[in-house]
Design goal:
This protein is of the alpha+beta class and 149 residues long. It is 22% helix and 34% strand. The two termini are 13 Å apart.
Amino acid sequence: MKFKKLIVAFSVVAGMSMLVACGSDDSSSDAGSGSGAEVTTVASSAIPAATTVPTEFPREVPVITGGRYRLISPSPTQQSLEVSGLRAGDWDRAVGLLTQAGFTRQPGQEDLGSVKSATFTKGGRVVALLSNGAGDTFGIVYTTMLTSG
């Protein structure tokens, strides 16, 4: 029962991370700037998105490729990684990567169309996925933490 409460609390944290991530990013491309580079404005507390997974994110958690990556909450025991610039079909690919790596999907997941959530466990690690958006605005937040079990 304690483990189920932990997973529920963890899923809430993951959801809040997604809301914070979506609320703090004001991305835009400026075709008239002449540089051809994408201009991204983020809150001062956020780390700019990169084209590779940050080295601080646990390597034992497989992350979908092809997006832009931003570590939202780096700490030794819990990290949240926002992956933006994906397509809705990438949700199934992200879930498949975790399953292939030996993570077990936990019951009680949500699929509300453009918003999906899933929680996985493997050994002492919990990974929660939360998605939002559609088309070119689709993104996934991976939130992972170590448990005592």
